[in-house]
Amino acid sequence: MEKKQYALGIDIGGTNIAYGIVDKFGTLKFEKSVPTSNFKTPIDFINYLFLQNEIQDELTNILGIGIGAPNGNHFKGTIDYAPNLLWKGCIPLKEMFENIFKVPTMLTNDANAAAVGEKFFGCAKDLKNFVTITLGTGLGSGIYINDSIIYGEHGYAGEFGHIRVIPNGRLCKCGRKGCLETYASSSGIVRTFHEMNSDNKSKSILLTYEKITAKDIFKEAQSRDLFATEIVNYTAKILGSALADFCAFSDPKAYVLFGGIAQSGEFFRKKVVKEFEENLLSIFKNKTEIRISSLHDKNAAILGNAASVFLNL
């Protein structure tokens, strides 16, 4: 009887940590999500994970662990000064996991992991050149060129959320001003709600919400609330323009939008495409697609991290 072979995929985000056990066909045997704020230190999380019954039951069948994290350095196996995490400094996460789990562990940027998941199990199977844009608490990108994920010289390639789109704009957690993720992310959209001056603001149903979220704003925009629609249009304008500029560098066949904002599907995609095409260099017009992830109901980041284990081992 063939021995079962699994990978443990972990996606560490600024708000939540998702993890799951995956087989080589991309089937999630088990998955769970917990708030990142539950764990004051990385070792608290690792100890919690190790003691989970679902993981203990399959411990001998787990070939390796794949982790995606903000500022995850593929080469060093460290999280380096992630602005969206409570855990500060340079964290040797790969070493910590291997000391406790005793299996090979791979660490990468969370958006790179999402790109690998999309490539092997999602809507990018047919693509050799594409960029995954993860729209969560922050904004990240995973870059595939010539069928290979790009890590860069130091392992930091893909920090697209920290290109500056507004001169002297909003203060970012990275310490600079005007970064893309301060506008085109779930947290950035909420900031737009609070900062935008609009004739439609006082009439908006959004003002009746006790605590506003990006999901609320998109929901009301789809219900034709005028102020919510202004916010979504502004977000699409900034994101579409930034993606147009990025084409001049990477010339992708497609962008794949992943994350909470992208789950509104065609409603948001069409707005981004409009701004994208209007801002493209002429040689790129009508040549690059913008797709929505096909893995929103499966968790692309977990699958991508698991896929990196099977590929490397």
Can you describe this structure?
The protein has 313 residues and is of the alpha/beta class. The chain has helices at 42-50, 53-57, 93-101, 110-121, 186-195, 214-222, 226-250, 266-279, 300-312, and strands spanning 6-12, 16-23, 28-35, 62-69, 72-73, 78-80, 90-91, 105-109, 130-135, 139-145, 148-149, 254-258, 289-292. It has a five-stranded mixed beta sheet, sandwiched between helices. The chain has a five-stranded mixed beta sheet with strand order 11-10-9-12-13, with helices on both faces. A three-stranded antiparallel beta sheet has the order 5-6-7. Strand 5 (72-73) and strand 6 (78-80) form a beta hairpin. Helix 4 crosses helix 9 (300-312) and helix 7 (226-250) crosses helix 8 (266-279).
Quick rundown:
The chain is 34% helix and 21% strand.
Helices and strands, with pairings:
Elements: E1 6-12, E2 16-23, E3 28-35, H1 42-50, H2 53-57, E4 62-69, E5 72-73, E6 78-80, E7 90-91, H3 93-101, E8 105-109, H4 110-121, E9 130-135, E10 139-145, E11 148-149, H5 186-195, H6 214-222, H7 226-250, E12 254-258, H8 266-279, E13 289-292, H9 300-312
Parallel strand pairs: 1-4, 4-8, 9-12, 12-13
Antiparallel strand pairs: 1-2, 2-3, 5-6, 6-7, 9-10, 10-11
Helix pairs in contact: 1-3, 4-9, 6-7, 7-8
Number of helices: 9
Q: What proportion of the residues is helical, as a percent range?
A: 25-40%
Summarize the main sheet. 5 strands, mixed
User: How many DSSP-defined strands?
Assistant: 13
List the helices and strands in order. Answer: EEEHHEEEEHEHEEEHHHEHEH
CATH architecture of the largest domain: 2-Layer Sandwich
Shape, per Cα inertia axes: globular
Count of all domains: 2
Distance between the termini: 21 Å
| CA radius of gyration | 19 Å
Class per helix and strand makeup: alpha/beta
Please state roughly what percent of the residues sit in beta strands, choosing from under 5%, 5-15%, 15-25%, 25-35%, 35-45% or over 45%: 15-25%
